[in-house]
Amino acid sequence: MSDEAELPETMATYLRLRGLEPSPFRTKRRRRRTDDDENAPFSPGRDPRGLGDVLANLTQSAGWEPQLAREDLVRTWHDVAGADTAAHTRPVALDAGTLTIQADSTAWAKQLQLMRAQILSEILRRFPEAGVEAIRFVGPDVPSWKWGPRAVPGRGPRDTYG
Fold first, then answer.
1. Which of 56, 69, 146, 150 is the most exposed, having the fewest neighbouring CB atoms within 10 Å of its CB?
2. Which alpha helices (DSSP H) does 51-141 contain, by range?
3. What CATH number was assigned to the domain covering residues 80-139?
């Protein structure tokens, strides 16, 4: 009887009509969430993220990582090759996994051919997503003597110099 006196009369009447006895201890039960909705407040994964993390997730989901890695390789060529080497070279193309580097002179191109393994390993270490499999070193652009509709095979005007 004392339990019914503590309950409001409307609640006691409701419980009697439903066939439920009022419990001697009124405790408030908390309902546990069983669903792991990521939009629920205070759930794991709802912490704020940095802009870098958000952009990294975006580039990964959009499939932009290989192209961005290639752009980073060109942009940071002076760090990859070294300051002295970068002063005399520049990346000009990346086609089918082959990176083409143009040097100021044929001497620089030959020297870089000897350093090919070291440069390639540095590129693979820093930019594995770029897809670089080989490096090709070329000398400077030189004028061609082969032009015009009547060009003939041979050495060109240089064969008359001697």
1. 150
2. 51-62, 65-75, 77-81, 83-88, 106-114, 116-126
3. 3.30.70
Q: Which residue has the tokens 């419980």?
A: 15
Distance between CA atoms of residues 104 and 81, nearest Å: 15
Beta-carbon contacts of 24 under 8 Å, excluding residues fewer than 6 positions away, are 3
Residue 91, H or E segment: strand 89-95
Report for 20-24, 27-31, 89-93, 154-158: range of highest mean pLDDT:
89-93
Give domain limits for the chain. 80-139
Rounded to the nearest 10 degrees, the angle between the axes of helix 116-126 and helix 106-114 is: 70
Task: List 91's β-bridge partners, or say none.
Answer: 101
